Amino acid sequence: MYISFADADSYLPEKAFFKNQDKVFHLLIYIFLAIIWGLYALKSRVKKRLWISFIITFIFGIILESIQEIVSPFRTYDTMDLIANCLGVIIGTVIVHYYMKYKVKIN
Description:
By secondary structure, this protein is mainly α. It is built from 4 helices and no strands. Helix 2 packs parallel to helix 4 (79-102). The radius of gyration is 15 Å and the shape is globular.
């Protein structure tokens, strides 16, 4: 969450390597987040746990992008960031789904 509200200049290079590199950063962070939360959810005994993890992570991405302008003076709302967050959650959840489908068992 710190990264969501911190000054982006503090952790991103001064000069972008390519156009919209921050969108790729959003995408990768949310892929990672969805995978971590998805794998954690798989260890629970709740039915439809991956679906619940997907919904929670998806809503989390929407809320964080929506409130960051209010919470942090360094950040502003960007629809393309929101789309990258949501795509990251979808991709991460699909990765976990296929991991679950082809992995024999998670201990």
